[in-house]
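It would be a great kindness if you could assist me with a short task in structural biology. The full record is reproduced below for your convenience:
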Amino acid sequence: MHIVNTKYGPVSGIRRNGCEQYLGIPYARPPVGERMFRHPEEPEPWTEVRKADRGSANPVQAEAGFKVWNNSLDCLYLNIFVPEEKKETPRPVMVWLYGGNYAQGGVGAVRPGSEALVYDLARFAAETDTVVVALNYRLNLYGFLNLHFLDPSFDNNNGLYDQIRALEFVRDNIAAFGGDPRNVTLFGQSAGGACTLALMTMPEAKGLFQKTIVQSACVEHFFTEKESRRYTRRYLRFAGVKEPEELKDLSMQRVERANKLFSNQMRAMGEIRCAFSPVIDGRTLRREPKQAVRECDLPMLIGNTSQEANLFLGSTPAAVLPFVERAIHVRAVPGRGNYRQRVCDGLTDHIYIRPQLEILRGYRGPAWRYEYHYVLPHSSLGCFHASEVAVLFCMNGMFGPVDDPETQRVGAAMRKIWRDFAWNGDPGWEPFPENEMCQRIP
């Protein structure tokens, strides 16, 4: 494996699954001590060749069903996947932002020292013929809780600024890996999709990417300053602290427990937004992304799965569903199957489709809309939220096996669409509003 010289020092990776892989590269200084709740800083340079053959730790999580393991405060690392086949011209770059309610997720190793990654994007990189970058960003308390109003030494929206710092790393270094820094597609799912929309509106991110793919974004999951202050005070009670400074000394176990209690109470109160949503504070995030993003003119591919909310309400007892309707102000969609599915479809429309269409109807740039309909063979929840991610990346184990012929066919078709968009800025069908009814996948 040859050595790549980055702005900060040389790295050597591994060759595996059709790609040269450079894993666990630091893009910022460890967010520990006085940097724990601050915007990220550039990494310390190194002189010796850094072995980049294992994924890093993942961010501190909330205790929940989608938690990934191997967690640490020292988590600001990224992975780069470069197709083995040499090219004389630079490849397009695709930068991935994972979802997880701003509270769970990561792209590092599944266990300390393991070769297995939470997101192994080698096959995706090889089939799309792009240089793919996957990055960790801080979550929950460390990434998105508004503590600035209590203590100005605590920054807001650290998770978004982690993403900006990683994109700056890409701008400054990706050419050394064979990528084109002037042809970067930022793509993310769920909270990662919402972060993509937010970054499209932030002056600090301007010019760091040229195209976006927005998958199942929780478009309206942002808090006003007033809302976030109320929720922050509630979180501090669950954490058992009176002053923000005390948070720096909490064990990871106490933080994870507080994260879970806080998220559970938010749901019990009927708050359908993510418990740790970013804050529109007028400084770091200046405006509601749903409105501000309409002024952007970058090519955008945006869409959703057809039954997003089945993941959230699919196992809710039938007797509880009327109370759910009232608590979250959602109406069952008439004429779409049984009552449970109609409530789920109503929530899908409310959280995903309606705000997505609001963006598209005022968007300045070229945009294409899709809806994903494929149901995994073993799925009991239909075409649920995030079910396309495992198929897109060919990830066995995320929601079960994806290696049957039909799932492989759908995955290959999706990767071609994502590839065409990254290479040409066009997924292959009429843009919105000419195709307002959206493209069905598959």
